[in-house]
Amino acid sequence: MTENKTLPTGASVADFLGSIEHPVRRKDGYRLLELMSRITAQPATMWGPSIVGFGSYHYKYASGREGDAPAVGFSPRKSSLSLYGLTYGPDAAALLGRLGKHRTGAGCLYINKLDDIDGPVLEELIRQGFRHVTTVLHQG
Description:
This protein has four helices and six strands. It is an alpha+beta fold. Strands 1-2-3-4-6-5 form a six-stranded antiparallel beta sheet. A hairpin with a 4-residue loop joins strand 3 (66-76) and strand 4. It is globular and about 40 Å long.
C-alpha cells in the first residue's frame, strides 16, 4: 500500500503565502488564513508543499488505506483557490447553493477569488465543515 504523500511539514505558512506570485491569490490566501484560524481556533500548518491546513483527522477506508489529513484547509493554486473539508457537512449542499460563483469536485470547493462569493456563507461552510470532519467523518 502506498504511503500518504500529503503530510504535515515544518514549513512556514507565512513564507509559503508570501511566495505566491499572483497578487489576488496571495491576498486571498492571507484572508483565508485569518478566517480559518479564527473559526477553527487551530494553528495553520503546511501539509505537503502547498496546502495550508487547520486541525486534522484520521481516516481509514474499507480498503485498509488509512492516514491523516487536515480537517479544513486551502491551497491558492494557479487556476483557482482550492478549499478542503467544506463540502462534507449535512448542510453543505444548501450553503453551496447560496455561496456564489464556485465549482466542486473530488471533495474540494474551487473558487476564483473571495470577492466572487458570499463571505458569511463561506464562514458557515468552514464552521460546519470543521465540526463535521472532526466529529463525524471517518469516526466509525
